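I keep forgetting this: the sequence line spells out the residues, with the fold written below as integer tokens. I include a record here:
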Amino acid sequence: MSVVINTNTSASLASYNLSSTNVNLQRSLNRLSSGSRINSSFDDAGGTAVSMKMSASIRRTEATLANVNNSVAFLQTQDGVLKNADKVLNRMSELAMLATDVTKSTNDLALYNTELTQLKDQLELMLSEKFNGISLFQSGSNATFDTGTSAANLTVVTSHDGDQSFAITRADLNFISTTVGTSAAAGMQINTNAGATAAVATIQTQIQNLATLRANNGAEQSRLSFAADMLSINKINLESANSRIVDVDVAAESSQLARYNILQQAGTAMLAQANMSTQSILRLIS
């Protein structure tokens, strides 16, 4: 190999290796300081694309879970009103049965009927209850009792991609209220023994209808709770999968950092040696 002055190949090679080592060292420091294996698309182009889609899925799953929990709260609020309606109907049933007593005078029956009328009004007021501005119950008058097939029901999305959903019921408390008689219609009266006897049968039927509504409400809450559990599990699994792509293995990266530190020190020393090597030429020309 010839001895030259203008070109120092050893120094150029040492400089190139030192530069590469510095790039890797900075990348390793960036990964350890950020906790992420991928800090730019250059680090892993394919992994970046997959991670972006998974991150979006995670965010949608979180939003869907929040929506499902809100729907559960809607049903819980609805059930609270239905529970109170049950108390009203039970009291109405009690009043109607008391009014069948043949020993009661007309004035006694009128007093029972007065309380019954007040309870009718209270039952009607329950129809206007809302959750965040959304009506808990169906509006309008149905010819028959609706157990949950109305188009007015609310559709709840239960998957992050929108492919899964089911309808929660706006309970048909209106039919029950109308049947036992509201303030807008005289309806059921217990100011006579005959009227009281008929009222007992009517109220019993509506108590059964109310029980159906509460059972349906409980079933829907149960289904939503399982949907929420599934969303929570999916979120955990998506986070785990995304972590394997983007999160840095601190133990392995620490080893790489130590390696690059040693290479940097060795490269710096060798570059200095390479730069000094041409000084031997001076001995030849001195």
Notes: Helices lie at 9-34, 45-98, 106-125, 173-180, 193-246, 250-277, 281-285. The longest strand covers residues 154-157. The radius of gyration is 39 Å.
